[in-house]
Amino acid sequence: MATPIHRNGSLSAVSLQGFVLVGFGGGAETQALLFAAFLALYVVTVLGNLTMIVVITLDAHLHSPMYFFLRNLSFVDLCLSSVIVPNALANVFSSSKVISFAACATQFFLFSLLATTEAILLAVMAYDRFMAICSPLRYPVTMCPMTCARLVLGTYCVGCLNSIVQTSLTFRLPFCSSNHIDFFFCDVPPLLQLVCADTTLNELVMFGICGFIIVGAVLAVIVSYGYITVTILRMHSGAGRHKVFSTCGSHLTAVSLFYGTGFAIYGQPGGVASMDQGKVVSTFYTLVIPMFNPLIYSFRNKDVKDALRRLGQRHSLVKKSAWCRHQELC
To answer: What is the pLDDT of residue 152?
Structure first.
């Protein structure tokens, strides 16, 4: 069936039933290399975050507010990558690279929800460290299980609210200039380039909401770590300082990576201009950062390393016991 065309040569918004995800482009060798790299990173991301979730759940020594938030961070990272990467991998060798309008809107909604949730969750984790280090006597009462659950629920609620606003504002627009998205997933900046109407409101809303979330979260982190730094400097124990620096250093590394890449593409008006730069930056917060987070928190955290060792020993004992029972039966 022929596609209706407007007088200005653009595609009819009514006839537009889906989008084409252009991806990174390049020849067959480039596509194969990208597929291998994305697949390897995604496998490490899934294994790393699943390991963190399992270890924190099974080890009683890690049943504290800090690791409760860390387990939720691993869950969000796992979901964030899974919303984007499998479809991107499938499109690498696909001839059509088509994603339906509904699937694009769903991917957009989930990505926005999870990315916003992670941004706020990192700020909540900074507040948790502030309470643990600066008010250790009040910490068990202030950060009780109910409070922790409410804080995590609050991060999802804010993420959902932002996602609803962004999705409703974006997908009510007429997409009629083309159906080719110059990106590897459905996101605000590339979608706005397909709109044949004024997108000033959408860009201002994106800049305003995302800028407010990122700046607010960063301020919360700065204030929390400002108090933490003062408390650390007052400590007389070198071992205590080292433990605090180790724990806080892991979190600060994760915060810097996520907020830095997020601000580069969403927190500034010029962030929607360069799609090539946006593709590279987007791979960081959709794949590289979710892969690095469990590695950062496990390699630089003695408690997690001890828990992994205990889990390994428990697994070895179970296997040895099963082998012994098998020998007795034989």
So the answer is: 96
